[in-house]
Every structure is written in C-alpha cells, then in structure tokens.
Amino acid sequence: MRELFPVVAGALVGGLVMAVPSQKLRVAAFVIGCVVFGMLASFLSGELAESWAFLSVDMLLVWFGGLAMVVLITGLRHFDAIQRFLTGSSGEANKK
C-alpha cells in the first residue's frame, strides 16, 4: 500500500504538466514534480530511515505514474481528433 502514493502522485504530476503549453517547460515541470513527489513519498513512508536507495525507487514510481497519465491524455486527444476526422465534423463548423 505504501507504493500507491508515488504512482497516484505521478499521475497527478502527469495530468498537471499536460496543461503547460511549452514543451520545454512541460519537461522541466515533469522532472521537478517527479523529484519532489518522489522525495515526499520516501519521507512519508519512512523509507529514508532505512536507506537512501528508496528515494530513487520512489522517484521512478512517480515517473511511471506520470508517464502513464501523459500517454493516456495524449492518446485521448489523438482519438478525439481521429473521431472528428472520420465523422467529417470540425470544431469551427459546429460553432456557427
């Protein structure tokens, strides 16, 4: 159960960084978020008292959770674009 927090925190980080418009800022925010939430997860679970190696494990879990969310959001965006193309509807035509 201890490993649930880093994965959920990673999904949160991944979801939040997809709102950042600039690709460079998105990558920077993703890395910083993974480091911060990985450190927080190691601290909250008490794993830092055992070994600092757990820090890298928790950061990696945050990264995997974030990556999964980024892939999911990107896939949904592409799926929506494909659906609009196949149905022949565009966003501008529906606004008139």
What attributes characterize this protein structure?
80% helix; 96 residues; 0% strand; mainly alpha
Describe this structure in words.
It is a single chain. The protein is mainly α. Helix content is about 80%, strand content about 0%. The protein has 4 helices and no strands. The longest helix has about 35 residues. The chain is elongated, with a radius of gyration of 18 Å. The mean pLDDT is about 90.
Q: What is the compact description of this entry?
A:
With 96 residues, the protein is mainly α.
For the largest beta-sheet, the strand count, sense and barrel status come to: none
Q: SSE order in H/E notation?
A: HHHH
Distance between the termini: 51 Å
Oligomer: single chain
Q: How many strand elements?
A: 0
| Low-pLDDT segments | none
Structure class = mainly alpha
Q: Assign an overall shape.
A: elongated
Calculate Rg over CA atoms. Answer: 18 Å
Please tell me the overall pLDDT.
89
| Count of DSSP H/I helices | 4
Helix content: over 70%
Content of β-strand: under 5%
Secondary structure layout:
Layout: H1 4-17, H2 23-45, H3 53-87, H4 91-95
Helix pairs in contact: 1-2, 1-3, 2-3
